[in-house]
Amino acid sequence: MTQDDLDAEVAELLSEFDQRYTAGRKRLVSTLSAGAGPLTITEILAADNTQAQSSVYRNLTILESVGAVTRIVTSDEFARYELAERFTEHHHHLICNSCGSVEDFALDASVEKTLDDALHHAAERSGFRVQEHRLDLLGLCRNCS
Amino acid sequence: MTQDDLDAEVAELLSEFDQRYTAGRKRLVSTLSAGAGPLTITEILAADNTQAQSSVYRNLTILESVGAVTRIVTSDEFARYELAERFTEHHHHLICNSCGSVEDFALDASVEKTLDDALHHAAERSGFRVQEHRLDLLGLCRNCS
DNA sequence: CTCAGTGCAAAGGATTTGCATGCCG
DNA sequence: CGGCATGCAAATCCTTTGCACTGAG
What we know:
2 copies of one chain form a homodimer.
Chain A: H1 3-16, H2 23-34, E1 39-40, H3 41-47, H4 53-65, E2 69-73, E3 79-83, E4 92-96, E5 102-105, H5 109-125, E6 129-140
Parallel strand pairs in A: 4-6
Antiparallel strand pairs in A: 1-3, 2-3, 4-5
Helix pairs in contact in A: 1-2
The first copy, chain A, binds a DNA duplex through helix 4.
Protein backbone atom coordinates (compact mmCIF):
# COMPACT_ATOMS: atom_id res chain seq x y z
CA MET A 1 0.00 0.00 0.00
CA THR A 2 1.36 3.39 -0.95
CA GLN A 3 1.47 6.31 1.40
CA ASP A 4 -1.31 7.96 -0.61
CA ASP A 5 -3.53 4.91 -0.37
CA LEU A 6 -2.85 4.76 3.33
CA ASP A 7 -3.71 8.41 3.77
CA ALA A 8 -6.90 7.97 1.82
CA GLU A 9 -8.02 5.02 3.89
CA VAL A 10 -7.21 6.65 7.18
CA ALA A 11 -9.03 9.78 6.06
CA GLU A 12 -12.02 7.63 5.21
CA LEU A 13 -11.97 5.96 8.61
CA LEU A 14 -11.74 9.29 10.35
CA SER A 15 -14.51 10.85 8.35
CA GLU A 16 -16.82 8.01 9.32
CA PHE A 17 -16.50 9.28 12.84
CA ASP A 18 -16.64 12.95 11.86
CA GLN A 19 -12.98 13.41 12.57
CA ARG A 20 -10.56 15.35 10.45
CA TYR A 21 -7.31 14.07 9.03
CA THR A 22 -5.19 16.94 10.29
CA ALA A 23 -1.54 17.57 9.56
CA GLY A 24 -0.53 16.21 12.96
CA ARG A 25 -2.49 13.00 12.49
CA LYS A 26 -1.07 12.57 9.03
CA ARG A 27 2.43 12.86 10.39
CA LEU A 28 1.66 10.29 13.05
CA VAL A 29 0.43 7.82 10.46
CA SER A 30 3.47 8.47 8.36
CA THR A 31 5.82 8.02 11.30
CA LEU A 32 4.18 4.79 12.39
CA SER A 33 4.17 3.54 8.85
CA ALA A 34 7.92 4.11 8.61
CA GLY A 35 8.77 2.29 11.83
CA ALA A 36 10.06 -1.29 11.86
CA GLY A 37 7.71 -2.08 14.72
CA PRO A 38 5.46 -0.42 17.24
CA LEU A 39 6.77 2.88 18.55
CA THR A 40 6.68 4.47 21.96
CA ILE A 41 5.50 8.02 22.48
CA THR A 42 9.09 8.99 23.08
CA GLU A 43 10.21 7.47 19.81
CA ILE A 44 7.37 9.15 17.98
CA LEU A 45 8.26 12.51 19.45
CA ALA A 46 11.89 12.00 18.53
CA ALA A 47 10.92 11.32 14.92
CA ASP A 48 8.47 14.17 14.74
CA ASN A 49 8.68 17.00 17.21
CA THR A 50 6.25 19.24 15.41
CA GLN A 51 3.45 18.66 17.85
CA ALA A 52 3.06 18.74 21.61
CA GLN A 53 3.25 15.51 23.53
CA SER A 54 -0.34 15.92 24.64
CA SER A 55 -1.44 16.25 21.04
CA VAL A 56 0.37 13.07 20.16
CA TYR A 57 -1.46 11.26 22.93
CA ARG A 58 -4.76 12.78 21.91
CA ASN A 59 -4.34 12.08 18.22
CA LEU A 60 -3.19 8.53 18.79
CA THR A 61 -6.22 7.94 20.98
CA ILE A 62 -8.47 9.21 18.23
CA LEU A 63 -6.70 7.23 15.55
CA GLU A 64 -7.08 4.17 17.72
CA SER A 65 -10.77 4.79 18.33
CA VAL A 66 -11.50 4.86 14.61
CA GLY A 67 -9.45 1.72 14.06
CA ALA A 68 -6.47 3.21 12.27
CA VAL A 69 -3.82 2.42 14.86
CA THR A 70 -3.41 -0.10 17.65
CA ARG A 71 -2.06 0.54 21.10
CA ILE A 72 -0.03 -2.25 22.60
CA VAL A 73 1.69 -2.72 25.90
CA THR A 74 4.60 -5.08 26.15
CA SER A 75 6.22 -5.38 29.56
CA ASP A 76 7.87 -2.11 30.21
CA GLU A 77 5.98 0.93 31.34
CA PHE A 78 5.68 2.53 27.92
CA ALA A 79 2.73 1.99 25.67
CA ARG A 80 3.50 1.50 21.99
CA TYR A 81 1.52 2.26 18.86
CA GLU A 82 1.46 0.71 15.42
CA LEU A 83 -0.75 0.94 12.36
CA ALA A 84 -3.85 -1.22 12.65
CA GLU A 85 -3.66 -4.66 11.12
CA ARG A 86 -5.94 -3.69 8.24
CA PHE A 87 -3.04 -1.56 6.99
CA THR A 88 -0.28 -4.05 7.61
CA GLU A 89 0.35 -7.74 7.19
CA HIS A 90 -0.66 -9.90 10.11
CA HIS A 91 2.46 -10.12 12.21
CA HIS A 92 3.87 -10.72 15.66
CA HIS A 93 6.48 -9.12 17.86
CA LEU A 94 9.99 -9.88 18.95
CA ILE A 95 10.32 -8.19 22.31
CA CYS A 96 13.82 -7.82 23.72
CA ASN A 97 13.98 -8.52 27.44
CA SER A 98 17.16 -6.53 27.68
CA CYS A 99 16.70 -3.27 25.78
CA GLY A 100 12.93 -3.35 25.40
CA SER A 101 12.95 -2.88 21.65
CA VAL A 102 10.12 -4.40 19.66
CA GLU A 103 10.43 -5.69 16.12
CA ASP A 104 7.88 -7.23 13.79
CA PHE A 105 8.01 -10.72 12.31
CA ALA A 106 5.58 -12.99 10.49
CA LEU A 107 4.75 -16.65 10.62
CA ASP A 108 4.17 -19.08 7.75
CA ALA A 109 0.60 -18.93 6.59
CA SER A 110 0.19 -22.66 7.22
CA VAL A 111 1.38 -22.40 10.80
CA GLU A 112 -0.80 -19.39 11.30
CA LYS A 113 -3.77 -21.34 10.05
CA THR A 114 -3.10 -24.32 12.31
CA LEU A 115 -2.70 -22.00 15.22
CA ASP A 116 -5.85 -20.09 14.50
CA ASP A 117 -7.92 -23.25 14.25
CA ALA A 118 -6.52 -24.57 17.50
CA LEU A 119 -7.15 -21.28 19.23
CA HIS A 120 -10.76 -21.05 18.17
CA HIS A 121 -11.31 -24.61 19.20
CA ALA A 122 -9.75 -24.04 22.61
CA ALA A 123 -11.62 -20.81 23.18
CA GLU A 124 -14.92 -22.44 22.32
CA ARG A 125 -14.52 -24.80 25.23
CA SER A 126 -14.44 -21.79 27.52
CA GLY A 127 -17.37 -19.99 25.94
CA PHE A 128 -15.01 -17.27 24.81
CA ARG A 129 -15.59 -15.39 21.57
CA VAL A 130 -12.22 -14.71 19.95
CA GLN A 131 -11.71 -11.39 18.21
CA GLU A 132 -7.98 -11.56 17.67
CA HIS A 133 -4.87 -13.23 18.93
CA ARG A 134 -1.65 -11.79 20.12
CA LEU A 135 1.56 -13.72 19.90
CA ASP A 136 4.86 -12.28 21.04
CA LEU A 137 8.30 -13.72 21.51
CA LEU A 138 10.34 -12.63 24.48
CA GLY A 139 14.08 -12.96 24.42
CA LEU A 140 17.20 -11.18 23.34
CA CYS A 141 17.49 -9.18 20.16
CA ARG A 142 20.46 -9.35 17.86
CA ASN A 143 22.18 -6.44 19.57
CA CYS A 144 21.67 -7.65 23.11
CA SER A 145 22.47 -11.34 22.77
CA MET B 1 1.83 -29.58 43.25
CA THR B 2 0.69 -29.20 46.86
CA GLN B 3 0.79 -25.91 48.69
CA ASP B 4 3.63 -27.27 50.81
CA ASP B 5 5.66 -28.23 47.76
CA LEU B 6 5.01 -24.83 46.29
CA ASP B 7 6.10 -23.11 49.48
CA ALA B 8 9.24 -25.19 49.63
CA GLU B 9 10.20 -24.36 46.06
CA VAL B 10 9.52 -20.68 46.40
CA ALA B 11 11.50 -20.62 49.63
CA GLU B 12 14.35 -22.31 47.77
CA LEU B 13 14.22 -19.74 44.98
CA LEU B 14 14.22 -16.89 47.44
CA SER B 15 17.08 -18.28 49.46
CA GLU B 16 19.20 -18.48 46.33
CA PHE B 17 18.99 -14.72 46.26
CA ASP B 18 19.35 -14.29 50.01
CA GLN B 19 15.74 -13.36 50.38
CA ARG B 20 13.42 -14.53 53.11
CA TYR B 21 10.10 -16.23 52.62
CA THR B 22 8.17 -13.96 54.93
CA ALA B 23 4.56 -14.30 55.97
CA GLY B 24 3.49 -11.60 53.53
CA ARG B 25 5.24 -13.27 50.63
CA LYS B 26 3.78 -16.60 51.56
CA ARG B 27 0.31 -15.13 51.53
CA LEU B 28 0.93 -13.62 48.12
CA VAL B 29 1.99 -16.97 46.69
CA SER B 30 -1.02 -18.61 48.24
CA THR B 31 -3.37 -15.96 46.87
CA LEU B 32 -1.92 -16.19 43.37
CA SER B 33 -2.03 -19.95 43.50
CA ALA B 34 -5.73 -19.85 44.33
CA GLY B 35 -6.67 -17.51 41.47
CA ALA B 36 -8.15 -18.76 38.19
CA GLY B 37 -5.81 -16.47 36.30
CA PRO B 38 -3.46 -13.57 36.82
CA LEU B 39 -4.58 -11.10 39.48
CA THR B 40 -4.36 -7.34 39.70
CA ILE B 41 -2.97 -5.59 42.74
CA THR B 42 -6.50 -4.57 43.62
CA GLU B 43 -7.71 -8.14 43.46
CA ILE B 44 -4.80 -9.30 45.55
CA LEU B 45 -5.46 -6.66 48.17
CA ALA B 46 -9.13 -7.62 48.23
CA ALA B 47 -8.23 -11.24 48.84
CA ASP B 48 -5.60 -10.43 51.43
CA ASN B 49 -5.65 -7.09 53.16
CA THR B 50 -3.10 -8.04 55.79
CA GLN B 51 -0.32 -6.04 54.22
CA ALA B 52 0.11 -2.53 52.91
CA GLN B 53 -0.25 -1.91 49.21
CA SER B 54 3.36 -0.85 49.01
CA SER B 55 4.44 -4.11 50.57
CA VAL B 56 2.43 -6.03 48.02
CA TYR B 57 4.18 -4.18 45.24
CA ARG B 58 7.56 -4.67 46.86
CA ASN B 59 7.06 -8.33 47.57
CA LEU B 60 5.71 -9.07 44.13
CA THR B 61 8.71 -7.34 42.61
CA ILE B 62 11.02 -9.49 44.67
CA LEU B 63 9.09 -12.66 43.90
CA GLU B 64 9.30 -11.76 40.24
CA SER B 65 13.03 -11.07 40.40
CA VAL B 66 13.74 -14.53 41.79
CA GLY B 67 11.50 -16.12 39.18
CA ALA B 68 8.62 -17.16 41.40
CA VAL B 69 5.94 -14.98 39.85
CA THR B 70 5.39 -13.31 36.50
CA ARG B 71 4.11 -9.84 35.89
CA ILE B 72 1.91 -9.39 32.86
CA VAL B 73 0.23 -6.42 31.31
CA THR B 74 -2.81 -6.91 29.15
CA SER B 75 -4.38 -3.79 27.67
CA ASP B 76 -5.85 -1.96 30.56
CA GLU B 77 -3.77 0.09 32.92
CA PHE B 78 -3.44 -2.52 35.64
CA ALA B 79 -0.55 -4.92 35.83
CA ARG B 80 -1.38 -8.50 36.76
CA TYR B 81 0.62 -11.17 38.50
CA GLU B 82 0.56 -14.94 38.33
CA LEU B 83 2.75 -17.78 39.55
CA ALA B 84 5.73 -18.38 37.30
CA GLU B 85 5.35 -21.05 34.67
CA ARG B 86 7.68 -23.44 36.51
CA PHE B 87 4.88 -23.76 39.09
CA THR B 88 2.01 -24.05 36.66
CA GLU B 89 1.22 -25.76 33.40
CA HIS B 90 2.21 -23.87 30.29
CA HIS B 91 -0.88 -21.90 29.43
CA HIS B 92 -2.24 -18.85 27.66
CA HIS B 93 -4.75 -16.16 28.43
CA LEU B 94 -8.27 -15.31 27.40
CA ILE B 95 -8.48 -11.57 27.79
CA CYS B 96 -11.92 -10.02 27.71
CA ASN B 97 -12.02 -6.79 25.74
CA SER B 98 -15.13 -5.76 27.58
CA CYS B 99 -14.64 -6.40 31.27
CA GLY B 100 -10.87 -6.90 31.28
CA SER B 101 -10.98 -10.23 33.05
CA VAL B 102 -8.23 -12.71 32.29
CA GLU B 103 -8.64 -16.47 32.34
CA ASP B 104 -6.19 -19.26 31.67
CA PHE B 105 -6.43 -21.87 28.94
CA ALA B 106 -4.11 -24.44 27.41
CA LEU B 107 -3.38 -25.66 23.91
CA ASP B 108 -2.93 -29.20 22.65
CA ALA B 109 0.64 -30.34 23.12
CA SER B 110 0.95 -31.08 19.40
CA VAL B 111 -0.16 -27.61 18.38
CA GLU B 112 2.11 -26.13 21.00
CA LYS B 113 5.00 -28.08 19.53
CA THR B 114 4.30 -27.00 15.97
CA LEU B 115 4.01 -23.45 17.10
CA ASP B 116 7.19 -23.54 19.09
CA ASP B 117 9.18 -24.96 16.19
CA ALA B 118 7.81 -22.34 13.83
CA LEU B 119 8.56 -19.58 16.27
CA HIS B 120 12.15 -20.60 16.80
CA HIS B 121 12.62 -20.90 13.10
CA ALA B 122 11.16 -17.47 12.44
CA ALA B 123 13.12 -15.86 15.23
CA GLU B 124 16.36 -17.32 13.95
CA ARG B 125 15.96 -15.44 10.72
CA SER B 126 15.97 -12.21 12.72
CA GLY B 127 18.93 -13.12 14.91
CA PHE B 128 16.63 -13.17 17.89
CA ARG B 129 17.20 -15.54 20.79
CA VAL B 130 13.83 -16.73 22.07
CA GLN B 131 13.39 -17.18 25.79
CA GLU B 132 9.65 -17.64 25.92
CA HIS B 133 6.53 -16.98 23.97
CA ARG B 134 3.37 -15.27 24.97
CA LEU B 135 0.08 -16.04 23.31
CA ASP B 136 -3.14 -14.38 24.33
CA LEU B 137 -6.62 -14.33 22.88
CA LEU B 138 -8.56 -11.10 22.89
CA GLY B 139 -12.31 -11.15 22.65
CA LEU B 140 -15.43 -11.46 24.75
CA CYS B 141 -15.73 -13.73 27.74
CA ARG B 142 -18.74 -15.86 28.44
CA ASN B 143 -20.35 -13.17 30.57
CA CYS B 144 -19.78 -10.30 28.20
CA SER B 145 -20.70 -11.86 24.86
C1' DC C 1 -18.08 32.88 12.68
C1' DT C 2 -17.90 28.47 14.71
C1' DC C 3 -15.96 24.69 16.54
C1' DA C 4 -12.56 21.07 16.37
C1' DG C 5 -7.56 20.83 17.07
C1' DT C 6 -3.51 22.31 19.58
C1' DG C 7 -0.07 23.82 23.16
C1' DC C 8 0.88 24.54 27.74
C1' DA C 9 0.59 23.59 32.32
C1' DA C 10 -1.67 21.32 35.91
C1' DA C 11 -4.06 17.15 37.45
C1' DG C 12 -4.61 11.97 37.75
C1' DG C 13 -3.47 7.49 38.93
C1' DA C 14 -0.73 3.31 39.17
C1' DT C 15 3.63 2.37 41.00
C1' DT C 16 7.93 3.47 43.62
C1' DT C 17 10.64 5.22 47.29
C1' DG C 18 12.33 7.55 51.89
C1' DC C 19 12.24 6.97 56.45
C1' DA C 20 11.18 5.31 61.00
C1' DT C 21 9.73 1.18 63.26
C1' DG C 22 9.29 -3.76 64.07
C1' DC C 23 10.73 -8.35 63.83
C1' DC C 24 13.30 -12.46 62.19
C1' DG C 25 17.60 -14.79 62.42
C1' DC D 1 22.00 -6.95 68.42
C1' DG D 2 21.92 -6.10 63.04
C1' DG D 3 19.65 -5.83 59.08
C1' DC D 4 15.84 -6.96 56.26
C1' DA D 5 10.79 -6.29 55.94
C1' DT D 6 6.92 -3.35 56.61
C1' DG D 7 3.64 0.74 56.91
C1' DC D 8 2.79 5.21 55.95
C1' DA D 9 3.13 9.07 53.27
C1' DA D 10 5.37 11.62 49.90
C1' DA D 11 7.41 11.44 45.42
C1' DT D 12 7.63 9.66 40.42
C1' DC D 13 6.39 9.24 35.95
C1' DC D 14 3.43 8.09 32.12
C1' DT D 15 -0.80 9.72 30.65
C1' DT D 16 -4.97 12.63 30.75
C1' DT D 17 -7.40 16.88 31.18
C1' DG D 18 -8.69 22.08 31.61
C1' DC D 19 -8.37 26.15 29.35
C1' DA D 20 -7.42 29.62 26.16
C1' DC D 21 -5.94 30.24 21.49
C1' DT D 22 -5.55 29.22 16.60
C1' DG D 23 -6.99 27.86 12.18
C1' DA D 24 -9.80 25.31 8.84
C1' DG D 25 -14.32 25.26 6.58
